[in-house]
Amino acid sequence: MDQVKSLSKRLSAILISFVLIITLVGCSTNVFDNAEIDSKSLISAIEDDAMVLLNFGEDSASYNSYKATGFDYGSYDVPSRFDLRDIGLVSSVKDQGLMGTCWTFAIMSAAETDILNSEGLTLEEYVKKNGGEPDFAEKAYAYYSGTADIEANEGFVYFDPGEASSYDGGGNPMIALITFSNGIGLYDEKDYPYYDKDGFVDYDYGIWTLDEETRYDTSYVVKDWNILPSPSTRDENGNYQYDAQSVELIKHELYNNHKAVAVSFHADQTVSTPSYDELKRDLWDELVNDYKVGEEFAEFYINFRAGRVDVTSLSDDEIRDLFKFRLKYNEFPDDLYDVDSFTRDQLNYLVNSNELGADADLIVEYEKSIVHYINQNPDTPTFAHYTFEELVANHMVVIVGYDDNYSKENFIEGQQPPADGAFICKNSWSKDWGLDGYFYLSYYDESIEGPCTISVEKNVDETRTLSIDHSQIIELSSVYYDKPVYQANIFDVQDEINLSGLGVITDNQNTLASYEVYLLKDKYKNPKDGKLLAKASGEFAYSGAHRIDLDSEITIPAGSKISIVMTQKADDKYVLLTGYGYTDQYAVDIYNEVFPYEYDIDKVPLRYLVTYMENGQSLVSLNGKNWTDFKTLASEFDNSDVLKYFTFDNFPIKGYYHE
User: Fold this and answer.
1) Which residues touch 433 (CB under 8 Å, ≥6 apart)?
2) What is the rounded distance in angstroms from the CA atom of residue 446 to the CA atom of residue 541?
3) Taking the mean position of all CA atoms in its chain, how far away is CA 602?
4) Per residue in 539-578, pLDDT tens?
5) Are 502 and 536 in contact (CB under 8 A)?
């Protein structure tokens, strides 16, 4: 969710270097019987969904809580205050550093809480038993979820590829949903350390490109990734609405289920400030030996860089000297600014700005325009956060508790929420930040999106994923029908496998998912033309990624073709589920100023999606007899912008197996 933005990006056209990738979507012939599905209405519905995403960008990909119809929130008995730390179910605070990996830290933290809860151990007891905390690898999850599967030739490709691209691309609950379903699970920190031996992030010499062969070698698999309704909703006119029932549901997950809840919101910053210890390690010798400053000033400057200095308390001479040294250290010309002519008010803004190099008046104007949402008043820092306006989420943290009586007076004066109440959140900016790494987030924050919970289990059988869609699609589309709609994927099984479970993606709440597995005949005519091997179903209250275990494992012979046929019913409607993401042309046309829709230059995606479909892999039917190839449908979109700006993948239907 993190993305570093500079003033220059806001003041001038963004420059994007790109590699043009041609996705082959050729004419195809349906090898199955002609279907009775109304392809025109299906295509129109998916187009409507896609057009919404064109206008709002990747960060606004729907998190599905808006698709609830008659969702039963239930009624729960919970206390007015609860904190998972009080019962020992929260792992230690970590530091993401300057990488855009907040979302992985939030997800791994939620998973670590789930491990403690499922094993019935407090953090202290777990450490005594295992010699250390539960600790999942943020580096591995960020890398494998943010890069293409090379063997499948599907997934994210970056416009400005580099060793750290996948760590700065960011993520959201939808990308997590898809990558978990693709078999990207949880890895041990000891195998993929985020920090060096001294506990710091090694940006320059750390290993940030990981081995492709270990992509699916996970120590834990995800059983459920649930996306809950959000406390922050919008009515049909786009006006903010507070959902009190959602707050109660999150409290229920915390208190009754002992689930930590990952959540996205709009933060004042998206990456951590370097710690004092890290800065002293990196800067001390340079300051004293290269810049020849005294030890007293070196100590002062390191404290300033670590955010420990309130510049408003400095004298005029001290702040002027500090600003001059900032210019020198950043190698700006001595005559870039007439420093002595600046007023004290200007210096207060300039000395802290990350936009040095631009016109001074413009920098001051920009810094004054920045609205802060978290109370970090030097005199009374409560670290209480309240975004009081509609903004796109840019940061993810994990909720570990709540307090109904947390006073609204703790928030920034003049920007206080309408009532008391806040979530207790664990951040990923080290224990040096906030309240030992924690802060309070108002129930009424208008930017909250996609609260999520996770359930994991140890990968004892070295489970793998049977899949023909390997890309990290960023959006799901649901098309609704009054009668059953069947979707099927056909899989080539090269080696003998033991099928143990099925992968379910739900785009709606209150979903009944039903599955059938067939061993297909040699000359099968449709996805049901063969021996029925298994039936399975599951009811899922939340949208997300889920696993259904089969009653017993099924051995699939080598060289077989099997089909997995799916139907989903959400409330009283049957659902046809598709997924898609941006092509490179989306950003290219924005760069060339020929994009036909309104757009925000700051929302130009850093990456695009490459997908691959073959004829006869994904099929759809309204009667279970006559089937249409989805690749054929995807090539028939009336609106050329859909195929120009979006690429579609095979249906998100999975199997899970071990050899």
Assistant:
1) 272, 273, 427
2) 24
3) 18
4) 999 999 999 999 999 999 999 999 999 999 988 889 889 8
5) yes
For residue 645, what is the domain's CATH number?
A: 2.60.120
Task: Report helix, strand or coil for 633.
Answer: helix
Q: Based on the fold, state whether residues 502 and 613 are members of the same structural domain.
A: yes
Taking the mean position of all CA atoms in its chain, how far away is CA 291? 41
pTM for the full predicted model: 0.88
- Of 369, 403, 424, the position where a domain reaches its end is 369
Task: Determine, yes or no, domain membership for 438.
Answer: no
Angle between helices 102-119 and 138-146 (to 10 degrees): 120
Closest to 102 in 3D by CA, of 48, 172, 181: 172
SS (H, E, C) 87-139: HCCCCCCCECCCCCCHHHHHHHHHHHHHHHHHHCCCHHHHHHHHCCCCCECHH
DSSP string, 364-393: HHHHHHPPP-B---SSS---EE---S----
For residues 467 and 584, membership in a common domain is answered with yes
Residue 292 Rama label (left phi>0; alpha psi -120 to 50; beta)? left
At 432 the three-state DSSP class reads: coil
Alpha helices in 170-286 (DSSP H): 173-181, 244-255, 276-285
Of the chain, the end-to-end C-alpha distance in Å amounts to 36
Q: Give the integer Cα–Cα distance in Å for 615 and 621.
A: 15
Q: How far apart are CA 367 and CA 515, in angstroms?
A: 55
In angstroms, the CA 630 to CA 618 distance is 6
* Vertex 73: Cα angle to 72 and 75 (nearest 5): 115
Whether residues 365 and 465 share a domain: the answer is no
Mean pLDDT check: name the lowest of 152-161, 330-339, 502-511: 152-161
Cβ neighbours, 10 Å, residue 413: 8
Question: How many Cα atoms within 13 Å fall on the side-chain side of residue 78?
Answer: 24
Handedness of CA 246, 250, 253, 259 (dihedral sign): positive
Please choose, from the candidates 552, 466, 563, the residue with its C-alpha nearest in 3D space to the C-alpha of residue 520.
563
- Give how far the C-alpha of residue 152 lies from the chain's centroid of Cα atoms, to the nearest Å: 22
Q: Is residue 602 part of a domain?
A: yes
Give the contacts of 638 (CB within 8 A, at least 6 positions apart).
Answer: 40, 43, 44, 47
Domain match, 349 and 496 both? no
Alpha-carbon dihedral sign for residues 409, 412, 417, 420:
negative
**Whole-angstrom Cα distance, residue 415 to residue 386?**
8
Average pLDDT value over all residues in the chain: 86
Residue 334 tokens, joined: 């001595």
Q: Is the pLDDT of residue 285 over 80?
A: yes
Strand locations in 469-559, DSSP E?
A: 475-481, 486-493, 497-506, 511-520, 530-540, 543-556
Question: Which of 223-227, 275-279, 401-405, 519-523 shows the lowest mean pLDDT across its residues?
Answer: 275-279
Q: What 3-state class would DSSP assign to 295?
A: helix
**Range of 337's domain?**
276-369
**DSSP 8-class letter at 617:** S
Is the pLDDT at 259 greater than 90, yes or no? yes
Q: Is residue 405 part of a domain?
A: no
- Is 345 in the same domain as 477? no
Q: Decide which of 369, 400, 435 is a domain's last residue.
A: 369
Structural domain tally of the chain? 2
Rounded mean pLDDT, 424-437 = 94
Does residue 163 have a pLDDT over 90? no
Q: Is residue 492 part of a domain?
A: yes
pLDDT at 482 exceeding the cut of 60:
yes
Short-list 179, 171, 174, CA closest to 227: 174
Q: Identify the weakest region by mean pLDDT among 225-239, 354-368, 534-548, 549-563.
A: 225-239
